[in-house]
């Protein structure tokens, strides 16, 4: 893919070389993301950060990433505060917002809506999650995290991952599965209730490429022999009747005891977050918070690096980032 000026809508746009280039740039963003260094490479640029569905980390990390590159952020965080509620079309919204922005990150509850919006936009649009469909920047930060946690220097061939929970509506597992499927000899163990299985078309593309899919509703056996376990929340907002979500909530939980009994030592624990910490759900227990293999907050930190890299590449400033770099005088080490 030629990143310059491209919309980033789906993981299907990426090949292994694109991923390699993105991760190379993400590595270079580290001193800026840690606030050791400051760059003004996007001075004067504006990000339109349109979140028509709730978000904490995607919205804030896209905004932080843009600020860390010297750009400014204009946000819409509530569909009710937008003229869409007055009947304005995605086409008109895109024409208007792209007149005010140099790049747009957009989340929307309807699958395909970010793609529709991008066709009317005059600037690059990054899909920050469209309904149950895709969340490409999350998949990229997830893969980047897996690579770092497993200390894989080159390609990720041969890894074994268990994905657990709501695999039907969880857009992060859809995008991550497609991304991992670029590599060889990957084993996906998909642990979910039968009603919330991974969409058949995704299972099919994985099998067609020669990678392995094991589908089960037995968590204990499914957890064995993986390098990574990736938990997901029951996506209650996607159910027609939210009461139906109650049937599945709490069915698959990982806690210290289950991890110790059923996971290989050092299995990396991931979750796209938010985790549902209510007692009736609790798919990832806080008793694992201090576990060295719990990567969920390293995952969120990596989101800033990946999103910075996406901005740098889509706006074509990858060779200029360090030109305006200065050391930050007030830098303080994070406590943990
Ligand atoms: N992982 C993720 O998309 O989190 P938010 O909904 O908080 O953005």
Give an account of the 3D structure.
With 336 residues, the chain is of the alpha/beta class. It has two domains: 159 residues, Rossmann fold (3-Layer(aba) Sandwich), CATH 3.40.50; 162 residues, Rossmann fold (3-Layer(aba) Sandwich). 35% of the residues lie in helices and 15% in strands. The strands form three sheets. A five-stranded parallel sheet has the order 8-7-6-9-10, with helices on one face. Strand 2, helix 3 and strand 3 form a beta-alpha-beta unit. Helix 6 packs across helix 12. It is globular. The two termini are 37 Å apart. The model has no long low-confidence stretch (mean pLDDT 96). The protein binds phosphoric acid mono(formamide)ester (CP). Phosphoric acid mono(formamide)ester binds next to helix 3.
